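Schema walkthrough. Field components (list of strings):
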Amino acid sequence: MEDTESETTINVGDFLVVQRQGYTKLHKLRKHGNMVLGSFTVEMDNIVGERYSDTFQMKNMPGSKRFYILEKVDEVNSAAGCVSIEKSGADNRHIPNNADSQGLTKEDIDKLKGEELSSNNIVEQLINNSKTFNMKTEYSQEKYIKKKEKKYFEYIQIRKPSIRLLSQMFYRQDPTKTLGIRTDDLSQILSYANIHSEGNHLLYDSGTSGLMTAAITNAVGPRTTGSLIHMHPGNECQKNGFVAMQFPQEQADRCINVNLYSVLRCFYQNKGDYSGKSETVSESDANVDADNGEPSAKRTKVEGGASQKKQWQLDNERACKLLEGKVDSLVVVSKEHPVSIVKELMQFLRGGRGFVVFNSLKEPLQDLYVYLKGRVDIVSIRLSSNFMRAYQVLPDRTHPEVNMNAGVTF
Amino acid sequence: MSFDGYKDKIEEGDTVILYLTITQVYCIKAEPKTLNKKGNLIENVFQTPYGALKCAELIGKYYGSKISLSKGWGYVLQPTPELWTITLPHRTQIIYTPDMSMIILQLELCPGSIVVESGTGSGSLSHGLIRAIKPHGHLYTFDFHKTRAETAQEEFKDHGLANYVTVTHRDVCENGFGDDLDNKANAVFLDLPHPWLAIPHSLKSLKQTGGRLCSFSPCIEQVQKSCLMLLKLGFQEIQTMEVLQTQYAVQQRSLPVVNLDFLKSEKDGTETEKKDREMIKTITAIPPPTQPGHTGYLTFATLPPIWARNLQISLNQDDINDAD
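Field assembly_structure (string):
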């Protein structure tokens, strides 16, 4: 795993995670493309050729009010360090609770933003025009500055996507995007299903924005023997998360996306097709393996190309071939009721291997538990939920984050 | 030899998981002979609540198959890091699966990663880390307890994992991780009484292109000191969290229904005496009455690549000043 120059340089066509304070956004970098970030429209050209983890400042584009360009910076001036505070109150007993403590109007602020986007400047103006600021306590003054700074913060950092960043981003944007899978859920699914570089893994996923496929493919890793069969219910699977990871071709090829219905139809009805094929392939395997160690999956594709089959049919056949040899792990992440899906897919699981079923509701999983318990051939069934709490750690001010995630998933 | 790669049959010397019930899971070695306390070679027999098991009989059985005992039956399973975690011999406090999973995901590990771990402890996390990084990654693990380091080394060898791991006996707070590891690691994991002392050494071991760090501490005071050190050294995304898991008992309950309709009309003698009481069946999941409420705080941080480090240090300096 050598980090080559190309891996750390930002190129056109790359997927980036753009971070502005706590906010993150996935962006595909195009030539002369713009990105909308909250109320800002940013031209991204200047970051091409720079390196990941660099920080950029949003600067007003000359002659245009709403557009910003990016400039690489080596220093960030945070408002908290610059704004001088003259005096502070002891507590909040004199602070009136109304809307006219701020002297600046929205128009004034917009004008400031239009002239030069500088959070320090704007925050300073806001403070100078605030009637109550000097009455606030030191702590709440600092909180006020932080809050305002966040709103007008002009620096963004460009990050390389990783499963961690994607998972956190999707969940923050909208938990339904990943069917409610939080970072801790994701991590445990991978553990309990024993997903690693070896073996064939089977996933049924009815819409996690490609997060599950990305996470499993990532765990399978580059230049390894493992592979993933991804079954999805629609015509096209969700791929956001998967393409964002920009896996090398060889690794991405080992994630086979197939439609649940058509692959099972292929499995039951066209048995001759792919088994015949698998024979010929294994024959040629034996021949070619002696010459070079090209992975067999790739060859199936080449061979199939000659017989003029559509890509999805080839994928189905590849998947069926793997299914026939049985899989080493099964993960079911479904919107649908899990029992029928698990019942069907269970037959492909090799004996003594684990599987994980995730659902955001408890009741369907209770049904599943009863079903599994009823079958005598399954042991070690567990139903569990997770609880994750993040902490603010500052000297003398450590406490659980105020916003806690109370969502429970199983 | 049963941890590296999937296997179908049990071979001599394999570590095997014996599953009896959800709370009775054990690990045994498939060997005909074993040493007793006096150091004599005796027949390897494992006593279960359902009768004795001669371990030699396991050899050649399929993983996942059912075995009969004199008073019941059990299943033999191939170990995974999860099963190992619940059955391993404890030498220290260990890290359980919820924390372990989070650590692996948050450290952004994938096959090929180089990871540094200290301390090794009972090796629970080590097994999880090795699974995540093999076949071409490597784990460097350190423990300041000599026997523990040696036992762990033996165990990895026994489990067929020796190629993926290097065990070293060293106090990393004082002596660091060694020059060999300078700028090599993708991630560092610390589970130490004084993690903040090892953080500067970790910085040295992490790659120039940056990396992730995790510190596991049971006490919040340790977390505070570590976080300050991380800030000072220019780490970003410093985040502390706890992960807890609740396991439910799924049960079918029958609730009697109280029928009060008959009270509305006078008795006319047509009622059948002693009707069966109506019952409604319901399936429910019951959380346990007590469960572990705290394991440890997980603190994660990112070390930015070398070209972005100075910027982060100056940013963090502001935060530290604010706090004073």
